[in-house]
Design a protein that fits this description.
249 residues; alpha/beta; Heat Shock Protein 90; Transcription Regulator spoIIAA; 2 domains; six-stranded antiparallel beta sheet; five-stranded mixed beta sheet; 6 helices; 33% helix
Length: 249
């Protein structure tokens, strides 16, 4: 038995205690989170999988006739609430040891320590057969591009880090292939650029210089920390950094 219901900001699953159905829930959640703009699924997947396996194996003791109910609710900007409930006898949550086993060969007792490490908060029902996990995961950075009198204005919706570096690189290469030579990066929504993101921008400048003799590269609306980063990494030799933005933004 497997049932799924998506309603606005939440999605609910009800399924029989069969381990293969855990994978089905995971895949459905991947699609749900993708539509919500989530780029990093690995931590969420780990938490959800451990909670579901625990409900099937330890809560319902693999009794197929017993049901697991799971709901995922989008709480706000980056936070999700995962609720998993089984039909088992429950346990005393106070007996849980949230420390990882000292023996690296210990195969058991790793589930809840991992869940605890990747969540903001864990709550248990009095009976112990329902757990609620709160987890924050970043939204996917997207790149909005518009033309302004021959300038390609590139506006990222969030940070430029390793997780979206390949998408960033592909976007820039496609623009080069279209023959554009003037680019303005609007970083109004960017708080962090890591070394991989910087490398993409540096390689982009080199590729563009080989394609066009009249290239122009500008960066606008950067925060103070990013402006200092561009000076420290000497990117200002290639990119013209124009002004900044108020520190309150």
């Amino acid at each position: 038995m497997f049932k799924m219901n998506e309603n606005g900001s939440s999605i609910t699953f009800s399924f029989s205690s069969e381990m293969h159905l855990v994978d089905r829930v995971i895949q459905s959640c991947r699609d749900y989170l993708k539509h919500s703009g989530v780029s990093e699924f690995s931590q969420f997947r780990l938490v959800l999988r451990e909670l579901l396996i625990n409900a099937v194996e330890h809560g319902n003791r693999n009794i197929v006739e017993h049901t697991v109910i799971c709901s995922i609710e989008h709480m706000g900007e980056w936070q999700f609430r995962i609720t998993v409930e089984d039909e088992g006898d429950g346990f005393d949550p106070r007996t849980l040891d949230m420390k990882m086993p000292k023996d690296p060969e210990e195969m058991r007792k790793r589930g809840y320590p991992l869940v605890n490490a990747f969540t903001d908060q864990l709550e248990f029902s009095e009976k112990g057969n329902r757990v609620i996990a709160y987890i924050r995961i970043p939204r996917m950075t997207v790149f909005r591009i518009r033309d302004d009198n021959g300038w390609q204005i590139i506006t990222p919706s969030g940070d430029i880090t390793a997780s979206i570096a390949e998408k960033f690189r592909t976007t820039l290469v496609e623009l080069i292939d279209k023959g554009h030579s003037r680019y303005r990066f609007d970083l109004a929504h960017v708080e962090d650029i890591d070394s991989v993101g910087l490398s993409v921008m540096i390689v982009f400048a080199k590729m563009l210089s080989n394609k066009s003799s009249n290239m122009q590269l500008e960066i606008i609306n950067s925060g103070k920390a990013l402006i200092e980063l561009f000076h420290m990494t000497r990117m200002t030799k290639t990119y013209k950094v124009i002004g900044g933005r108020p520190e309150s933004v």
